[in-house]
Amino acid sequence: GKPLVKYPVKTNGDIGVPLGLLYLAAYVRTHNPTTEISIKDYRLEKYQGTVRTLEHDLENIDVASAGGATTEIPDTLEILGVAKRLGKITIAGGIYPSSNAEQILRTGVVDYVVRGEGEETFSELLTAIENNSSVENIRGISYIKNNTIINNPNRASLDLKKLSLPAYDLAPMDDYAGLVTGSVYSARGCGM
């Protein structure tokens, strides 16, 4: 079947609209039209006093992806650990995994690390997973093969003009309304 991808957002840090994930989702929608995408922001649930339901959220998917900055990595690994125990393909991305791919892969709960800007790389990786084809030529990923860390060559910076508007419909925008003001990405950076 077609992969169903969830992008769980972690509980640490400020609660804000996960713009990076919404840009990623918009790109995947355009380039992988048969891929069903959903976003789960567990930070909102913690704020609202509800409990994570990782097993339930991850049971009917094929691929789980999560990522983030340094303070978010414990949550990232918890989410992907549950997904891995359920037999899912797991992908980590974001600032910390991009700079620490070997450490993240050696946890045993991550199959692939998407390094740097994720849109093109993640889209190509999903295509390879869906087609059960080789990932050897996908720039910007790291993975383990025969107990060896493989770091494919880096991908060139993305032309930001290629990006669609974020997939705001995948996020519960009303839930963010009382927590944050709107934000806009006018550039990218921070260690990529």
Could you please describe the fold and organization of this structure?
The structure is a single chain. With 192 residues, the protein is of the alpha/beta class. It contains eight helices and seven strands. It is globular. The mean pLDDT is 85.
Number of helices: 8
Strand order of the largest sheet: 2-1-3-4-5-6-7
> What is the strand content?
15-25%
Spans of at least 5 consecutive residues with low confidence: none
State the separation between the terminal residues, measured CA to CA.
33 Å
Instruction: Choose one word for the global shape.
Output: globular
Number of strands: 7
Q: Tell me the series of helices and strands, N- to C-terminal.
A: EHEHHEHEHHEHEEH
**What percent of residues adopt helix (DSSP H or I)?**
25-40%
- Structural class, please? alpha/beta
Q: What is the typical, i.e. mean, pLDDT? A: 85
Rg (CA only): 16 Å
Name some characteristics of this structure.
34% helix, 7-stranded mixed beta sheet, alpha/beta, 192 residues, 8 helices
What's this entry about, in short?
The protein has 192 residues and is an alpha/beta fold. Helix content is 34%, strand content 18%.
SSE inventory with pairings:
Elements: E1 4-9, H1 19-31, E2 36-41, H2 42-48, H3 54-58, E3 63-67, H4 73-85, E4 89-93, H5 95-99, H6 101-105, E5 112-114, H7 119-131, E6 141-145, E7 148-151, H8 173-176
Parallel strand pairs: 1-2, 1-3, 3-4, 4-5
Antiparallel strand pairs: 5-6, 6-7
